[in-house]
Design brief:
The complex is a heterodimer of chains A (116) and B (111).
Chain A (H helix, E strand, L loop, with lengths): L3 E4 L2 E4 L5 E7 L6 E7 L5 E8 L5 E2 L8 E7 L2 E6 L8 E8 L8 E2 L3 E5 L1
Parallel strand pairs in A: 2-11
Antiparallel strand pairs in A: 1-3, 3-8, 4-5, 4-9, 5-6, 7-8, 9-10, 9-11
Chain B lengths: L3 E4 L2 E5 L4 E7 L5 E7 L6 E6 L5 E4 L2 E5 L5 E6 L8 E8 L7 E2 L3 E6 L1
Parallel strand pairs in B: 2-11
Antiparallel strand pairs in B: 1-3, 3-8, 4-5, 4-9, 6-7, 7-8, 9-10, 9-11
Classes of the chains: A mainly beta (116), B mainly beta (111).
């Protein structure tokens, strides 16, 4: 139980383009989803928290117009990196939290984004 | 903001040895979690602790929630090569609130 998937697992895009990353909870309903960013040899940095059907809450310093988050259903959240630049290259990881037995945060496998 | 100090930063051990790592905080957390992250993957939840003083095992892993609510440790017994990875502690002030992560402990196990 508590399986979270992400797609794609890696993506390379050109500067100025937008990239969408999907996060799905496969065997439970995720009332809350979280998006993290991780640089090499560093810990996870929370970017934003989203509840199903509501606008995401962004952490200080995270540009909401650049990192668009949609949590349209109880099993799917998307992160769109708009007008990507090389400094946006990173490992993006989502986590999902449900209710009851699934109340902790369960992480997806991550998406490696490289902007050229 | 809240910070978790995790130590050691890295460990190099021989297969079969026991391992211990810990996290400390200047403020109280009411939930402690331990995750393992393999290279290129997301963290996997190993153990969750909900009560001060609680000692919980998951196979060869044992974790304890410090009585002061400001620390936790993780022990791995009889390490094997697949234990290699980065171990993160994480704390929550209240159940369901945001996670505060430690900086991670990189574990290397030599066969």
């Amino acid at each position: 139980g508590a399986v979270v998937s992400q797609h794609p697992s890696w993506v390379i895009c050109k500067s100025g383009t937008s990239v969408k990353i999907e996060c799905r909870s496969l065997d439970f309903q995720a009332t809350t989803m979280f998006w993290y960013r991780q640089f090499p040899k560093q810990s996870l940095m929370l970017m934003a928290t989203s509840n199903e059907g509501s606008k995401a809450t962004y952490e200080q310093g995270v540009e909401k117009d650049k990192f668009l988050i949609n949590h349209a259903s109880l099993t799917l959240s998307t992160l769109t990196v708009t007008s990507a630049h090389p400094e946006d290259s990173s490992f993006y990881i989502c986590s999902a939290r449900g209710t009851g037995l699934f109340y902790e945060q369960y992480f997806g496998p991550g998406t490696r984004l490289t902007v050229t | 903001g809240q910070q978790l100090n995790q130590s050691p930063q890295s460990m190099f051990i021989q297969e079969g040895e026991d391992v211990s790592m810990n996290c400390t905080s200047s403020s109280i957390f009411n939930t402690w979690l331990w995750y393992k992250q393999d290279p290129g993957e997301g963290p996997v939840l190993l153990i969750a602790l909900y009560k001060a003083g609680e000692l919980t095992s998951n196979g060869r892993l044992t974790a304890q929630f410090g009585i002061t609510r400001k620390d936790s440790f993780l022990n791995i017994s009889a390490s094997i090569p697949s234990d290699v990875g980065i171990y993160f502690c994480a704390g929550q002030v209240t159940s369901g609130s945001r996670l505060t992560f430690g900086e991670g402990t990189q574990l290397t196990v030599n066969p």
